Amino acid sequence: MDELHLAAIRTDYSLASLEETEVGDDPILFFRKWFAEAEHAQLSEVNAMTLATVDVDNRPHARIVLLKGLDGANFQFFTNYESHKGRQLAQRSHAALLFFWKELERQVRIEGIVTELQAEESDAYFHSRPKGSQIGAWASPQSSRIGSRAILEERVKQYEAQYAAQEVPRPAHWGGYGLQPLSIEFWQGRRSRLHDRICFERPDLAAPWEKYRLAP
Ligand SMILES: Cc1cc2nc3c(=O)[nH]c(=O)nc-3n(C[C@H](O)[C@H](O)[C@H](O)COP(=O)(O)O)c2cc1C
């Protein structure tokens, strides 16, 4: 990889700082503040987050999904329940979410427990999606091997024909999850790698948050 000069790529962060007092005592409220700032800064894919899950052999897997709701402290995203991530979450409910808002020199790490949303919540979001995405949820057996792109496109045509004259129902294999955090870390880049890291942690979902600073 030498030809990429990877060792020489570095950015010094100097935009902002993060104080304990500024973060307050409610990490969800502070997440909302940072999210609003990221939106205001017109970052692209501001709600894109890495979702890390673990399989039964304790191997980690990571991919991007979109944050589609924050209901109280429940970070919500939607996917195929039979996908790799769906199968992993069915067996290992602990997961992690990660936002990197590079233009703001900020990272947010969220770790907690994932459960499926109520059917009505999944229905409500599914029916708010464009019809093409609804058809896609039927046509794509997410994370299954398929022989060709043509097979997928043929399946799309079939479902388009099937639902041409009616509302597309939500497939039972497609819906939402919510992650309830047990820890949240707010990271603000600083000069010379002396970044600010303010963390919140609770031993269970009913416990109060403990707040502390970690060394960068
Ligand atoms: C910007 C972006 C947004 C994405 N959003 C979602 C999403 O909200 N839900 C989803 O199931 N997959 C989403 N994906 C695709 C996933 O990253 C992944 O490829 C897919 O969910 C299959 O993952 P799995 O095989 O680990 O289950 C997104 C990918 C990108 C790059």
Summarize this structure briefly:
The protein is 27% helix and 31% strand. By secondary structure, the protein is of the alpha+beta class. The protein has a domain at 2-116 and 178-213: Electron Transport, Fmn-binding Protein, Chain A (Pnp Oxidase, Chain A), CATH 2.30.110.10.
Notes on the protein architecture:
The chain has a domain at 2-116 and 178-213: Electron Transport, Fmn-binding Protein, Chain A (Pnp Oxidase, Chain A, Roll). The chain has helices at residues 20-23, 27-40, 84-91, 119-128, 131-139, 149-162, and strands spanning 48-54, 60-66, 69-71, 74-80, 94-101, 106-116, 174-188, 196-201, 210-213. Helix 5 crosses helix 6. A hairpin with a 2-residue loop joins strand 3 (69-71) and strand 4 (74-80). By secondary structure, the protein is of the alpha+beta class. The two termini are 27 Å apart. Strands 1, 2, 3, 4, 5, 6, 7, 8 and 9 form a 9-stranded antiparallel beta sheet that branches. The protein is globular.
Low-confidence stretches: none
Bound molecules: flavin mononucleotide
The share of residues in extended strands comes to: 25-35%
**Overall SS class:** alpha+beta
**Helix-strand pattern:** HHEEEEHEEHHHEEE
- Count of distinct strands: 9
Tell me about the biggest sheet?
9 strands, antiparallel
- Write down the CATH topology of one domain: Pnp Oxidase, Chain A
Q: Whole-number radius of gyration?
A: 20 Å
